[in-house]
Each structure stands twice: as C-alpha cells, then as structure tokens.
Amino acid sequence: MANLPSNQTDIELPHPQHPVDVARALPPRRPATWVLSIITVVVAAQIVNLVLTNPNFEWNVVGQYLNSETVLQGVVMTLFLTVTALTIGLVLGGVLAVCKLSDNALLSALASSYIWLFRGTPQLVQLIFWFNIGLLVPVLSIGIPFGPTFAFIESNTLVTPLLAAILGLGLHDAAYQAEIYRAGLISVDVGQLEAAQALGMKPVRVFFRIQLPQAMRFIVPPTFNSIIALVKGTSLVSVIGGAELLFSVKQIYSQTYQTVPLLIVASIWYLFITTVLNGVQFFIERHYGRGSSRNGSSVIVASFFDRRAAKRNRDRGLQS
To answer: What sequence ranges are listed for the domain ABC transmembrane type-1 (predicted)?
Structure first.
C-alpha cells in the first residue's frame, strides 16, 4: 500500500481563539418551560383565590366540625380498620408469596388463583359480597365434613358490618401485598444467594441477611402505596354501614345539609393521615436505600438531614 502524503495523514484540528470557560457556561434557554411555569402560577393563583374568597366553602363550619366527637370517632374507626386489614394483608400476603414461589405446583396454583380472584374484582364488590354472605350461606357450622355438626351460628349474626369490612379490606389487600413481596424477592440476584449458600450459610440466615435487606428497597415503596390506598379505601365501608370517617361526616351533613364543608373535613383528615404515612415511608426508604442514588424532592430532604448529621460529627470532632 502506497504511503499517503503527509498533508492527508496529519489533520490539524482548529484551535479556538479564546479558551472556553466551562464554569461560566450558561444553560440553554427553554422558553416553553417559562411559558408553562407562568401558566401554572396563574392557574394556581386563581385556585387559591377561589378557595379563600368563595363563601360556599364555609371554612367556619369546617373549623367547627374538624375536632367534633362524631368525626374523631370516625377517624379512630378508620385507623382501626386500616391497621387490622393491613395486618391481615401483610401476613396473608407473605404466605401467598411464599406459596406462589414454591416448587409445589398445587400451592403455587392455589396462591395464583387467590391473587387472580381478589385482584380481578373491585374492592367495593367484595365488601358488599361479604356483607351479604348470609344470602349465600345462611348458617355457618363447625363439625366433621359430610358428617355431624357440633356448633352453628347464623351468618347475619356473625358477619357484622365491621367484620365484613375487615374481611373485604384485608383479603383484598393480601392479594396485592403478595405480588409486592414476590416482586421484591425475585429482584435479588440468584448468584448472591448461591454464593451465600456455598459459604455454608443456612437458608434462613441467607433470607434474613442477604435476600430480605435487598428486597426491602423494592418492597417498601409499593407497600406504602398500598397502605395509603387502604386508608382511602376504608371510605368504601360507608356503603355497608361501617361507622368510619366518611360515614360519620355523612351522618352530620344529612342533618345539617352542609355537604361541602363536611366533605372538606373528611378530606383534611385523610390528607393528614396519608401525609404522616409519607413521612414514615421516607425514613424507611432512606434506611434501606443507603448507598443508592436519590432523585426528586427526596434529595432536598435527605441532604438536609445529611448536613445535620455531618455538623454533629464535626462538632463532636472539635470537642474531642
């Protein structure tokens, strides 16, 4: 191959007359972002003005009933239903997840069928079904299958609105929680589990020391989303006569005809409960997400606590 002339092999790149100062580089202009921001501010200002100046909101009525005895009793019942149904969902969901991941085909099929049934039907339908279970099974009995009966009770006597609400909320939540557990557990690399077993670690130790801590990073966010949905889902219990928060405010505005302010009262309490849950979720995610990248608004909050921790450590170093 003939040698190319030197003027074709040596390519000189142009040198800028003035060096580029990267530190002073300006971000590109985005006029569309400014236009959308202005529109958002204007719309938000109109909403705030509407909320503050419209007399139909009746904020004095909101303040009057916000801490009333009837409303507080509804809040307590809402929290009770949430905790009880959540306990059922967490425990039963764990059992279903283990069964679905099991090598036993029968257990896996039963768990899959349960999840398919309870995830595929609306929660309100399930609540009404459990409340009317007496139409399907008028009498519940205990005894030998296809044999004598030792004890029995009428379904309408046993299944009260409270029990129907617990069953409807808890069994429905268990189906979703099972899929959350399953997704978190299978997200852990199998190679890590095999390496731990090769080192002589027992399966229980592998689960609690290797698999579960890593799976929690994927389990916690959807679990708290499920809890928040469960808190709001308790409002469906009012359809079957459960005395939770929405049912309590409905009792009040059915007598006073102040529908809007009473619904605002219920909304404020729902927002308060879910805001507390969001705060708990943040700290749990921060615990299990150490070493991972963060984005969004959590960076601001996390950096604030990180700066406070760094300041405490620096002060301790100076004192020592």
So the answer is: 75-281
Q: pTM (2 decimals)? A: 0.76
- How far apart, in Å, are the Cα atoms of 63 and each of 40, 70, 196, 263? 29, 14, 59, 12
Q: Give the distance, in angstroms, between the CA of residue 42 and the centroid of all CA atoms in the same chain.
A: 32
How many angstroms separate the CA atoms of 61 and 259, rounded? 10
Q: Tokens 């569309």 label which residue?
A: 32
Beta-carbon contacts of residue 36 (< 8 Å; ≥ 6 apart): none
Q: Which two tokens stand for residue 126?
A: 């399930």
CB neighbour list of residue 178: distance below 8 Å, 6 or more residues apart: 92, 93, 94, 96, 97, 100, 111, 114, 115
- Residue 147 carries which DSSP code? S
| 126: Cβ contacts below 8 Å, ≥ 6 apart | 118, 168, 171, 172
Phi, psi of 141 (to 5 degrees): -130, 160
- Answer yes or no: are the C-beta atoms of 199 and 142 closer than 8 Å: no
Q: For the segment 68-118, what is each residue's pLDDT rounded down to a tens digit?
A: 999 999 999 999 999 999 999 999 999 999 999 888 999 999 999 999 999
Q: Could you tell me if 59 and 261 are in contact, meaning their C-beta atoms sit under 8 angstroms apart?
A: yes
Distance CA 174, CA 15 (A): 66
Q: Are 171 and 188 in contact (CB under 8 A)?
A: no
